[in-house]
Amino acid sequence: KQEVTQIPAALSVPEGENLVLNCSFTDSAIYNLQWFRQDPGKGLTSLLLIQSSQREQTSGRLNASLDKSSGRSTLYIAASQPGDSATYLCAVRLGGATNKLIFGTGTLLAVQP
Amino acid sequence: EAEVAQSPRYKITEKSQAVAFWCDPISGHATLYWYRQILGQGPELLVQFQDESVVDDSQLPKDRFSAERLKGVDSTLKIQPAELGDSAMYLCASSLGTSGFYNEQFFGPGTRLTVL
Questions:
Q1: Nearest CA in chain B to A89
Q2: How far is CA A82 from the centre of its chain?
Q3: pLDDT (tens digit, 9 = 90+) per residue, A20-78?
């Protein structure tokens, strides 16, 4: 059974700091991996999607890497801002007809001004 | 920009009552998903539709939950009777399909359910 773990569960950093969020998964047979942002009481906003054949994806100040063989992904946020404060979730997509997403429990990020 | 619509955004009900949530996916998206997210946890898939057919409902508590997508467009998720443990965020998502580059899921704003 695929399990997704995110460390740390919570993180507080001062504005301007670079930071890394970690995601690990137990079964390397994934189709792709996606990072989401969730603001309190809101839905999910997709940040980056990495296909299983890719090593990394970049969007602005965000960079996500994927090492499928070791079951790890990282989300790097450069020059953090208070507006980056949110919960960050990673999810792996299983193959097959269901296209099912298995989510981690998230990392709650607070960027202090 | 096309978005997944959900209503209501918030619902408060008493246990043993019936509740229903509605989702309208992005136009043209054949696949629709309902997820449940308990506070402090990641979302968990309840049911997945491909057009009007159920593809996966293995985690749907079928004794009290039901879902339908009669015309293969919008969908309704119902709980009857609601229990205290059903308090959660219910998220709807849609995707063009399930294979290749068409499988990215787009999420709606969710319905926050509180059962008293």
A1: B42
A2: 18
A3: 999 999 988 888 999 999 998 889 999 999 988 999 999 999 999 999 999 999 999 99
In sequence order, the 6+-apart residues with CB closer than 8 A to the CB of A99 are A31, A93, B31, B48, B95, B98, B99, B103, B105
Is A42 part of the contact surface with chain B (CB cutoff 8 Å)? yes
Of B48, B89, B104, the CB nearest to A98: B48
Contacts of residue A33 in chain B, CB cutoff 8 Å?
none
> Across the interface, do A99 and B48 touch by the CB < 8 Å criterion?
yes
Helix (H) or strand (E) holding A45, with range, is strand A44-51
Task: Give the residue among B85, B89, B96, B66 at the shortest CA–CA distance from B15.
Answer: B85
